[in-house]
Design brief:
With about 300 residues, this protein is α+β, with helices and mostly antiparallel strands. The chain folds into 3 domains: about 70 residues, no CATH class; about 120 residues, no CATH class; about 80 residues, no CATH class. The protein is built from 13 helices and 13 strands. α6 packs across α8. The longest helix has 19 residues. The chain starts with 7 loop residues before the first strand and ends with a helix.
Length: about 300
Amino acid sequence: MWTAPISITLTRDLTLDGVSSKSFARSTRQSDSDLMPLLRGAYVNRQEFKALDLSQRHLTRLCALRLVGRLSGEAAIARESAAVIHGLPLIGKLPERVQLVRRGRTGGKTTAATRTLPAPEDCDMVEIDGIRVTSVAQTLIDLGRRRPFASNLTSLDAALRRGNVTKEQLLSLVDAHPHTSGNTRLRRWIEVADPRSESPGESLSRAVMIEHHLPLPRLQDEIWDLRGRLVGRVDFIWPDLGVIGEFDGNVKYGRQMAGRPIEEVIQDERRREIAVERASGMRVVRWLWRDAWQGEP
């Protein structure tokens, strides 16, 4: 949970080895340097950091802040930063700064590495490895007030699927602040969240369907042939329309590969698709990340 995906070099460790922090910082500013400054006192390998996805980069920043002792005190990790700690998927951009909150009406502060905002006195917090973090439920509510629908539905679906929260818990946090802007929208988003969505891509696809007022499918239906054999479980199905929908993502294929060539995996998936169409009498339609992003699943 608090393990950075790449190594972090601290200047305080270098000074113990007799290396001047100023000379080290100067060397990292060279164009051919392998290291880059992540925040004051912490450095990472430039190429390794660039290879990380957005959540991994944010986690690396969080771990660096903790290593240099800047995540102590009354402030709690919040919003997108808390989502990363809790392992909640997010769609779209993440803030460069680590997000923090502090109970009270004052206390807002922005530094090069962090942004701290005031939070209500009843802001729900937990402690993880000695560091304050907003609870999963509180994090979801906070995200719901600042991020777009697709990202929020993805986080909500995942939290419900894992059993981290219930819809009742989320609604109680919304109702605790009846005059806060966005409550109607939040209740609607909580209502349509579904733990049967098994991946961010499936949640994004549903968000597009909902936003475009398309007929909503059933999720994760099993398809059986006439001999009573299970042919497969499908992401989406519209029985009245005679259509089955499948989201094709790299994560799905990654789970199936297990060292096999990608061509073999694709051939197996094509055979499965034909078997599903024969058993169901429906047409299978597939789409990719780029299709869902463009709103054209």
